[in-house]
């Protein structure tokens, strides 16, 4: 914990550099190796996909899944860490080629729900009630291929089944406007929280905001954070960065736009995010060109930048800023922010 915040990271955040145009550039690392790195860097928690906890999950019985989850719990405990989230990885399987909860094929929808319930069971074994739904394939390549209204109903139906499965589970929807789909059904936190209201227990359905996803939607991540926190529903956070409307870049936090990063920290500070107990996670990836020996630097650098920006946010002269606001002197306010970020 630094500056009062708890930090989390996922095993997929140490990746091998493959992109759609070329193969991997770094060797894969084992989970144990990654866990050692997380701990040494001062991370408090680990984010998991269901199959990060239980590899080849689809071929395993419910009992075997729980057993392997208990083994992971022990491993985490020995490292002095905890599981922050578990997320069903619903975008890899041949069953979910055309969507998971919103697939046109009822068998695919059933697969997605069954797998989500197993994810909740894994969470229970890990002592982790927060289930994240990144709705990767809940959208279309072709709008005429699905019915948008029906898709909302199907997502609500799926979430309701999860809520009924375990009364402790909380569902955090991670919105993203596109990629892998052309258009996604839950593109912003506003959409996620609106869907929450349709569910059987809206109090247990909230959101996870990712910087890059907000930017891909043409929105300011700080406003998205303020919006979710006005509802008390920002339950996790994926900080990273994104250079405009391109592919999802997952750059280190603050890498593309330091001022946008600063404003995200200001939003977290004014809303008391640290006090909610929720974690700050860095959903970041190394540049493909990164050498093996630097394969975790993007994460430690993100944490460093975060802590430095918390200091910048706390030392910002709010009184002077408010005076300029009252005087409608936004020119001076603009320069004040720039000079504060530049430092003395
Ligand atoms: C991809 C998402 C992805 C999720 C993760 C947790 O764009 O950000 O990394 O956060 O799979 O569900
Ligand atoms: Mg993410």
Structure description:
This protein has 344 residues and is of the alpha/beta class. It has a single domain (6-342), classed as Divalent-metal-dependent TIM barrel enzymes (TIM Barrel). It has twelve helices and ten strands. It has an eight-stranded parallel beta sheet with strand order 3-2-1-10-9-8-6-4. It has a two-stranded antiparallel ribbon with strand order 5-7. α3 (62-78) runs parallel beside α4 (106-126) and α8 (221-230) runs parallel beside α9 (258-270). The longest helix has 21 residues, at 106-126. The mean pLDDT is 98. The site of D-glucose (GLO) has 9 residues, from β4.
Output the CATH class name: Alpha Beta
Q: Please name the fourth-level CATH homologous superfamily.
A: Divalent-metal-dependent TIM barrel enzymes
In whole angstroms, the N-to-C terminal distance is 27 Å
Percent of residues in beta strands: 5-15%
Total domain modules: 1
Specify the CATH architecture: Alpha-Beta Barrel
Question: What's the Cα radius of gyration?
Answer: 20 Å
* Tertiary shape: globular
Low-pLDDT runs of 5+ residues are: none
Bound molecules: D-glucose, magnesium ion
Mean pLDDT, as a whole number? 98
List keywords for this structure.
globular, 8-stranded parallel beta sheet, two-stranded antiparallel sheet, binds magnesium ion, binds D-glucose, single chain, TIM Barrel, 344 residues, alpha/beta, 10 strands
Q: What secondary-structure arrangement, pairings included, does this model have?
A:
Layout: E1 6-9, H1 31-40, E2 45-49, H2 50-53, H3 62-78, E3 82-87, H4 106-126, E4 130-134, E5 139-140, H5 148-165, E6 170-174, E7 183-184, H6 189-198, E8 205-210, H7 211-216, H8 221-230, E9 234-239, H9 258-270, E10 279-282, H10 297-314, H11 318-326, H12 330-342
Parallel strand pairs: 1-2, 1-10, 2-3, 4-6, 6-8, 8-9, 9-10
Antiparallel strand pairs: 5-7
The structure holds D-glucose and magnesium ion.
D-glucose binds next to strand 4.
